[in-house]
Amino acid sequence: MTAVLVIEDDDRIRLALQLALEEEGYEAYGAPTAEDGLRRQREKPADYVLVDLMLPGMNGFDCIRQLRRDDDVPVVVISARDDTHDIVAALEAGADDYVVKPVAIKELSARLRALRRRVRTVAGPVPAQFFGDLEISAEAGEVRRSGQPVQVTRTEFRLLCELAEHAGRVLSRQQLLSRVWGYETGDERLVDVHVGRLRQKIESDPANPRHLVTLRGLGYKLQR
After folding, report:
1. Is there a single domain that holds both residue 68 and residue 140?
2. How far is residue 32's CA from residue 179's CA, in Å, rounded to a whole number?
3. What is the pLDDT of residue 66?
4. Would the pTM count as exceeding 0.90?
5. Which residues carry this modification: 4-aspartylphosphate (predicted)?
């Protein structure tokens, strides 16, 4: 059974989320602090982690950073804070998505399923693609730069593979939201922040990208 860890200090909200997720068919368990959640994730890894930002002790941003250092489990922020700065900061910390409270459980469940979706596979071996010193192997699930492994999250990898599959073509933010996140509508900041994180990892000069470029008003493309 797919497991979800809910890191939320409000007992009522945490229990309500756990019960609602169990009704959706998940195994759900909770933790009231970041420290408890990180320990539980090490001892019994969940398939998804939901994190509130306002936690006692270690805050949600630092919790996400620690989760990202340990593994690439999909992380979704659940928070009453809907300020653009908070959303961008959470995504830059390594969150895959951001849901504002009150949480609609059907929408949350759909987002979790979309985040777990793997890069589409095709029959037969898939050759690695090269963009200068950048190598993307969808089949092996690897990204290398100058022959050295590049650590990317599951979502970053899906985004990079989607752009590589359409190399040289512009994909709009909405197209990427649909193909990578599985959302027909959504916050396009998800795309922008993840593109920015990828540039920090794959570009020699992220401020002046050579391969992952922006076409103002149109979207992004990956070029050789």
Report:
1. no
2. 34
3. 93
4. no
5. 52
